[in-house]
Amino acid sequence: MAFEPVLTKGIGKLDLVDIEVYESQGGYQALRKALKQMTPEDVHNEVKKANLRGRGGAGFPAGIKWGFLPDDGRPRYLCCNADESEPGTFNNKMLIEYNPHLLIEGILLAAYATKAAQSFIYIRGEFKRGYETLVKALAQAKAKGYVGRNILGSDFSQEITIHRGAGAYICGEETGLLSSLEGGRGEPRIKPPFPAVSGLYGCPTVVNNVETLCNVPFIVDRGAEWFLSIGTEKSPGTKIFSVSGKVRRPGNYELPLGVTLRELLEEHAGGLLPGRTLKAVQPGGASSPVLLPEHLDIPLDFDSVQAAGSILGTAGVIVFDDTVCMVRTALYYADFFSHESCGQCTPCREGTAWTARILRRIEQGQGTEHDLEVLRSLKETMSGTTICLLSDFSITYLQSVLKHFEDEFKAHVHGRSCGLHAREVRSA
Amino acid sequence: MSQEMVTITVNGRQAQVPKGMLLVEAAKYAGIDIPVFCYHPKLDPVGVCRMCLVEVEGQRKPVPACTTPVADGMVVRTDTPVVQRLQRGVIEFLLLNHPLDCPICDKGGECPLQDQTFRYGPPQGRSLDPKVRKPKAVDLGNFIVFDQERCILCRRCTRFDHEITQEDHLVITQRAHENRVTTADGAPFNSYFSGNTIELCPVGALTSDIYRFKARPWDLARVPFVCTGCPAGCNVYLDFRFGELLRVISRDNPELDGGWLCDRGRFNYRYVHGEERLRRPLVKKDGAFVEVSWEEAFAEIARRLRQVRRDRGGAAIGAIGGGRLTNEEAYLFQKLVRAVFGSPNVDWRVGEQYIASSREFPGRISDISQASGILLVDLLPAERIPVVDLRIRRAAGRGRALLAAVGPAMPTYRPEFKAFPAREEEIPRVLASEELFELYRGRSRVVVLWSGRGRAVGAALAALLRRLKEAGSEVSLLIAGEQANAWGAEAMGVHPERLPGYAPVLHEGARRLVEQAWQVALPEGAGLDTARMLQRAAAGRLEALYLVSANLMATFPDRQLVEQALSKVPFLVVQDLFLTETAKHADVVLPAAAFPEKSGRYTAMDGTVQAVEQAMEAEGDALSDREIFARLAQAMGVRLYASDQELAWEMQHLAGAQDGRLAAAPAEMLAGEGEEEPAPAAEGEGLVLVPVERLYAGGGTAYFDAEFRRARPKAEARFHPEDAARLGIAAGAAVELAAGGVSQRYEAAVDRSVVAGTVQVPKGLFEAPANAFAKGARVAVTVLKPVAEEVS
Questions:
Q1: ipTM greater than cut 0.90
Q2: Taking chain B, what is the end-to-end CA distance rounded to the nearest angstrom?
């Protein structure tokens, strides 16, 4: 029997943007249930029990994160991180555009559980359609009394403010997001203090990803036990995998965590293009180290992917076949990161640009063995040396391809090119 | 409250350090130096350069020492292979595109990037790519030239501009390797404090337009000095090359300047060598000045003054000035006037300030930093005592101190402050109001800063401060003088009613003490103050006037009176650095030494006495004021003092300093006893004219400095937006202000900080002298030329 999707159920068939349609599918019932039958602590405990791990990339349990908020009289804030900018990742975008009420309901429940004074959605600037959809949905939710004062006649009140970013990848980093939301430059802050202790305007703040929050209504509605029955023991629930690259049917696929890479690619994404062979897969966005054909049978959950030497990250699965030049992919990402670094930390500001310059030369056949040496050494000075992880992320993929596809780099260095022309790989 | 101490271990060395101190500072207790670029002890840490990464036991990753507070038992290593590799890495990154133009860089030799590359950097660079070229000489403002290639984006400059001055001119734009320092909206970086960024810059990116490419730092001879620009008393170093003053930089005095300088103090020094310096004594013959020898000049003055004394008595001689002199010179000046000229008429006051200190409410500049309440009375601190204003901004900005301002012009601050706009004559009423009293009542430490203008204001202030004191507050009154050493002059008796040490001039015992010390009879009675001397002179009843560093045409509130007095007085001597407007009226002009050319003591606005030693030879034949007084006395047959020791003894005996501070004026002087109150302002139609100080205005050193002159303020009339709208005035329009038969042209500006119903014009601009108008005049405004419509 085919797996029944949870978050994406109805998408493509029903107009869930319309609040009446959403309600007809059981929408806002979880909110009703929580406000009528549950205390904020009950909601919090249910999410904690469900072991809902953050879908933004780090996989940190949301219930535990909520528990870090100090109770010291300062107002608390909830920020929904909708700044989805990771290359190869587009599951938040779909949820926002096609199931906005689910996100709003999730935010309301999280705000209720964390006793937030105010919620914010920080949405990626380029998501114009998503922004407009959210604005429309929020207005409907307000008109229906789901958002605002004394929601559904309860003591619970909540306003949601939608804020558009200005097109910076780094604002997806939670403290960069907060700096930007406050009106400053989108620059990550030194941790500690973590946002839970000192976040937006110096107040306790929870930052959760869109997909994470979208899971909350189901956990409240159906209970933690139900949630734990999906996925693996340590990574329960479903995950929307964004598959892109050299497959027949790229797209979003919501599957239980722990589905194998082979099933995802072969059964759902339609397999490779005719006559091609698999070269490598990035399981979790731009920064994830490559998995190789030998890894096809690993289960895609947070821990198994890590054990295989990569990260599940955003579950943006990017597939490379034998026509792809890995040097060019490395250059593509290097350009991306050297464009997206905020520039405050020396190793990241200078290192990302240097990496791109070297890779460009190598790609053009002007590289040397010395360059490869330098690239390898950068992991020592660019990893673990900066305020946020962008610097680390900017070279993890590079290090993995340098290791697994050294011959392609050598071919570029010694023979001017590897002979592959992956036209699809554009410059960032 | 004693500081809790914790024990840390750095590279195996244990140290007791205050709990919570940042590791970068705490490591110094263990004798370990952690290299930094972005960290600066006077700025909030940001941890961006990553040069200070160290290993801390129990931490997974290296941590930045500049943002990590110490905890008890912390074990730190700064010398491991990992740390060394990271340090080499940061230096390598910073040098990737750094131009390494050290041989021609101003910073070369005193450059943290050079020094740390030498100590911590990799032996060689590994980059095969050519350096990225960037703009090399971007004019950020009047004085700052930016070399973008050298910039390592440590952000010290932007943080200074944000945290310390709170002005936010400088910003970082763009992302990643395209990050660059620039100004917000491209507006010029014309902060009064811009020069501090040059010193903060750990590379040669921010440079002084005046000093750029002038010298190698190791060739400079450095002399510690004190800035004589205003009574803040900031400490400086003067840097010389072959006897030429090339640079002024800060010398941190935490009690006074906190390590900062204003741009006037830092950049207004080239006049010292300027073409326009007076280098020879001048005597007017047949309406034209002729250079003469000192002997000839002294002989002429001696002849004329002796004649006046013989024919009309010493009281027919007047002497004005002293507020810009050293304590010693001020003392000698009044002694010269009283003992040699035989005149009681000597006064340091050249403008509107009538008092320079207050014994009843003593305080220090550093009190501002501890204040819980700050009150500004008739004062724009940024324009008169800029570095002190930084303390006010910090105290108010941290939300610790309540800040309020009373006066005809309001200052501009980023933190909120209570504004009590009041015309000069209304200030006493505001000071007496319950509202103001209630605002400050119960605040533990109240610091009042005042211009020293208006006797009624002084009386009202005294009453308010007494009430606050009775209500339990600790109260300080700091008077920010118009002249750098107003306090010194006042204490040394350059005052018509006070002898040295504030002794009343009519007090028999006091007179006897002075007469014994000087071995001469004092002139009879009290003297005339500046206004009365000028009135007498204008009325033809004063025979001679001797002005010392007193450009009355620019500073005295009634320009017509000065002009009449100077034209009428039969014999005028002016002792100054330049042929000022005032000096042009003189019969004899004496070239005085500039500040680095003389030794002596200056008194800051909180009474702190600071000594300086002559740092360079005087230009031309210029003499120090001290020497001029002594030689003039000699020419008149009197020895003014026998030796420096004798002078020091005499000064200590009559006007002693204690604990490095001069005594302040007694309480009765604050209320201005026995002195005239100026006439009340004219009532009528029109906007009230408010002449305001501008830091870069004035007819002396700012004007006669070819390299500073560019920053002088325009003749600008500032209107409140409502008044501007009502009168149809757009910013940039040419307007004419007229009152009492005087009319002057200004360029209009519209500024929300201007009090509605008033129009502000700068003081001290001879192109449009504000003191040509009567005090408190109401002016009619005529728009001469509206601004041309902008073509879109």
A1: yes
A2: 64
